[in-house]
Amino acid sequence: MGSFLDDAPAVMYGNTIHKNNGYDPGSYTYYPIAIIGAGESGIAMGCRLKEVLGFDQFRIFDRQAGIGGTWWINRYPGVACDVPAIFYSFSFCPNPKWTTLYPSGPEIVKYLHGVCDKYRIMDKIQLNTDVRKCKWLEEEQVWEITLQHLLTGVGDLSEYERAQKIREQGRESVYVSEERIRAKVLISSVGGLVEPKLWPEEIPGKDKFQGRIFHSARWDYNIDLKDKDVVVVGTGCSAAQFVPRLTKEYGAKSVTQLMRSPPWVVPRQIPPFGEKGWEKWSPWLCSNVPGFAKAMRLLIAAGAEYDWRLFGSEDYNAKERQKLEEKLLAHMKKIVPKKYHEILTPDYGVGCKRRIFDATWFPGLNDPAVELTTLPLTGIGENAVTLGPGRTYPDPNDTKSSTPSHKVTIPADVIILANGFQTTKWLHPLDITGRDGKKLHDVFEERGGPQMYMGMALDGFPNFFTIFGPNTATGHSSVILASENMVNMALKFIKPMINGDVALTEIKKEAELEWARDTQSALKKRVWYTGGCRSWYQTEEGWNSTVYPYTQIWFGLRCMFPTWSDWDITYTRKGQVKRSVKKVLKVVALAAMIVGGVRLRRKLQGKSLITLFKAYIRVAFLTGAGLLQTVASRIG
């Protein structure tokens, strides 16, 4: 590890934000650190740069019109976190006054704004700014980044919607201007749940439909659902939160929910003292009882880690899954109407897909205005949709099943897509070009699928870190914990760069390939492959770039203690001198210990242990000082 490089580029660019060649047409602004994304990962990185490193010469760019990432853009009715808030928050900035165990999206956004205010990074965030291209300039050893400044609010549209707007209304309906900047360190904090899945093109008739179609991740509150016939495509976590509200709170006449296959539904955890008791007492307890909030966070984290037992492929894991599955099926049959029991009984192992932690969806299926079906959507008319023939679940060839598979046409005024996100296209649609003109997505394709060492580094892309990249998500824990771990690890590499000791940091190719090989190999032994399901975790070819196959405890330890030999670190002249001095000091210290020990052995035979210890310290200090003086005179 380590090589020597003259530090001319560091001198040229420095460690402060500044404008270069103001009158020149090629003028650019230089940022020592550029961060893409103002969601929880980008916010965590900005806060820790200031708190841990005392460094504030960075800028966070986000295309959306507000701060919060996925929590800013997802505004569907009932949007909330399914991880307890006391755990789904930053360890360095706890919130003692959550109003509930499972906070709503608006409350999470309010919390993230409060974090930005506390650490004074609000002025470091630039919104309505789309990062389009990032290119590594080898000769100057910086990243050149192309920014496109957007009309306010346009960044809240999806990539597809913006492209459509440009086709119909021209570029000026989306973009204000373009700018190129440069940065020594580039950090991507782009989340995985960014780009909604598009309309399934194999379903005809969309252009004939007289009603409205939108994705739950881009909820359109301008549409009045009162007395409307609504069709919802999907039964994931989002749909489970908003479907029960459509009839009771928004007055929909009917809701037909289309399910491809049933999810495993886990009853939401009841907090201590019950829902109302927790809401009443938890703010006081967390604010006034020392250690209460930390103890609760630890208990929740420990419980989440215990759930990791569900993901293995050993007999013990299978038995644990079976015990839980029996409980979950009993819970389902107790709550939902009997007509849904068959289609809500999964044929795969619990944990194979994202579980739904639910308090309202199952009870909501008792609403006579709500209909759940596994008939596939096969066509669209002007004010109706056609379902069937056939069925998506159970297997249509199962003659013993009584589940409907006939063709039916039902009225439809609004179609809501809750079919998820483009989760297998990591860092899409960013165009990132590394050393030798290699594009990041081309490297992914060449190697079989999206992959990065520990989800945060790729060879050929120096001084580039990704927070919450491929294979870092968990099916059981808090994503904020994973993000914090990666932020803390990245800081270990960023610190010497902003101190001027390191010019380049890059993961070794063999280390990245071995990490990816081990990850994919371990995943194939876990429930995501052995559980008998296909999920949004995987590509059509079976490459899983989403899930981390080990515990978060292990991942946290790997982040706390990096394997330095896996990295190529190029030191500046200043850094090389510091390393040499440290090596000399280690040699001097060792020599002082040896020489001091020899001298003591001769002079203090028969003395007490305390006397020997005191004398040893004195002799070692004097010996070390003498050796250092000799080394200094030789260097001079």
Task: Tell me about this structure.
The protein is an alpha/beta fold and 636 residues long. It folds into four domains: 276 residues, FAD/NAD(P)-binding domain (3-Layer(bba) Sandwich), CATH 3.50.50.60; 126 residues, 3-Layer(bba) Sandwich (FAD/NAD(P)-binding domain); 25 residues; 30 residues. The chain has 17 helices and 22 strands. Strands 2, 3, 4, 5, 6, 7, 8, 19 and 20 form a nine-stranded mixed beta sheet that branches. It has a five-stranded parallel beta sheet with strand order 9-18-10-11-14, with helices on one face. A three-stranded mixed beta sheet has the order 1-22-21. The longest helix has 31 residues. The radius of gyration is 29 Å and the shape is globular.
List keywords for this structure.
about 625 residues, alpha/beta, FAD/NAD(P)-binding domain, 4 domains, about 35% helix, disordered C terminus, flavoprotein, FAD, Flavin_mOase-like, flavin adenine dinucleotide binding, FAD/NAD(P)-binding domain-containing protein
